[in-house]
Amino acid sequence: MKGKGTLKRKEVCLLVFKAQGKKGKEAKEYREGYYGTNLQSWVRDGLLEQPKGKGYRLTKAGIRYLSNPEAEHHRIKAKQIRQRLNNIRDYHRDLYKEVHELRQKVAKIDRVING
Fold first, then answer.
1. What domain range includes position 80?
2. Same structural domain for residues 12 and 32?
3. Where are the alpha helices (DSSP H) in the chain?
4. Which of 18, 40, 55, 98 is deepest in the core (most CB within 10 A)?
5. CB 48 within 8 A of CB 12
6. Inter-residue contact 7 to 56 (CB < 8 Å)
7. Do 23 and 77 belong to one domain?
């Protein structure tokens, strides 16, 4: 272990691998592959955190995931959908503002042309 309650990347991958009933020797092959790559998505989903970039620590959501993966998966998906909706709303708000500004410019040009 790195610090109080934190694990190195290698240790997290090894624990996940062992939890799946596989042997430690096999974990070497996968450390930089699937599990290593997905550590960042687990951080993004809130299952793990990286306190000050030093190792990884299980969050409350990660603990809930251990006891009920399906329910926590649905929570994560709902959070991602809400975020996507917020992004779309913000994008459309920006587009609406731009359209409004362009209409004002066109109206100003029309007034200049038509006197």
1. 69-115
2. yes
3. 9-19, 24-30, 34-44, 60-67, 69-114
4. 55
5. yes
6. yes
7. no
Burial of 11 (0-12, 13-18, 19+ CB in 10 A): middle
pLDDT tens-place values along the chain, 115 residues long: 444 678 888 788 777 777 777 766 665 665 566 666 788 888 889 999 988 878 889 899 988 988 888 999 999 999 999 999 999 999 999 998 999 999 999 999 988 998 7
Q: Are 1 and 51 in contact (CB under 8 A)?
A: no
C-beta neighbour count of 13 within 10 angstroms: 23
Neighbour count for residue 2 (Cβ, 10 Å): 14
| 63 and 48 share one domain | yes
Residues 111, 93 share a domain? yes
Is 23 found in the same domain as 77? Answer: no
63 and 8 fall within a common domain: yes
* 27 CB-near residues (< 8 Å, 6+ apart): 13, 14, 17, 18
Residues in the chain: 115
Count of structural domains within the chain: 2
